[in-house]
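Appendix B. Chain record.
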Amino acid sequence: MPAGGKDGGGHDATSWRQFEETASSRLDESGHPFLLGSAGGQTFEMGISRDTIAGEGGSAELRRGLLEAGLRQQLTRGRAPKISSDELHEDWRLLQEINSAGQREEASGRLEHRNQKAGINAD
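Structure tokens predicted for this chain:
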């Protein structure tokens, strides 16, 4: 992805780039891999296995960036994919799930912003 600006899918690549540069890999108490990193002034954990990527850690934008990077690498021309058709379909399903979550986050953020402008307190 390019540094800053929009990536080829129209997403803001800056946050993913920031997170990727600071992230370190760890295992949670169940043995699932996750990344610990920061972006936008916040530090958080983000699951990186198929079992955990759709979870709560990280924004939908960051989870989308991670999944897109993996899919891009697997589908690069000139080499045989190292992923089965079933795994590819599962990754595509996860990407769609994360995109839906991102749309909900954006809508919620817009609503919160409008409420703040109108002086409505959500508490």
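Further analysis of this model is presented in Appendix C.
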